[in-house]
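Please go through this chain and its backbone structure tokens and walk me through the local backbone shapes. Keep your notes short.
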Amino acid sequence: MTALAVAGLAALSAALFVRQHAGRRHHVASTASTSLAVDLVRRLRGRLTTRRSQYRRRETARDAVAAMAAELSAGHSATRALERAFARDDLAPRSRAAIAWGGDVVEALRADARMPGCGLLLAVSACWSVAHGTGAGLAESLRRAVSADREDDEVRTQLAAHLAAPRATARMLAGLPVLGLILGIAMGGDPLAWLLGTPLGFGCLTCGIGLTLLGLLWTSRIAARVEALL
């Protein structure tokens, strides 16, 4: 996401500079740069929205499973407990449909678990299968699954806090060239004219942005691999 933000800002800055300092012959290039910047920013916002939505759905799924365990403890059947616990949110549509039409609830739970943020339902399907196959208590198994999922979230939070420092360092290093441009302008120079107005300057600008994005992508993938281990 950081790489998309840097690319979007770079493209937008180039477009604004060309619009202000160039003639009509550069209008097409300026329009293309602006379109690229807008597209990158939209993709960035889309990814941020998706991640937040998955986090909220994961919390909602955890609360629903905890509610299902409470319904079971109150004496309701497994099917009734699932229907009541998941009735308020669209978390397990296939499972509720399987109950309504007499389908395979375990397979339906596994299918619902593939929805973003609903991975806990895979544990629910396993608990359901074991409980119906052996007669083991389903409520206690669900409570343990909720507790384990909550502990996993705490570990993810701690890991995100530890990874915040290297990510912030990478973003700071990516922003240093911009500070260099500002310093050059403050000293009376015109680095943007050279970067955007000459083939050599434009080549340096392109290589610089490319290497910056490569570094940000590398850092992001290292962090993502660590997070994927959980």
User: Anything to note?
Assistant: Residues 71 and 77 are 8 Å apart (CA to CA). Confidence is low (pLDDT under 50) at residues 19-30.
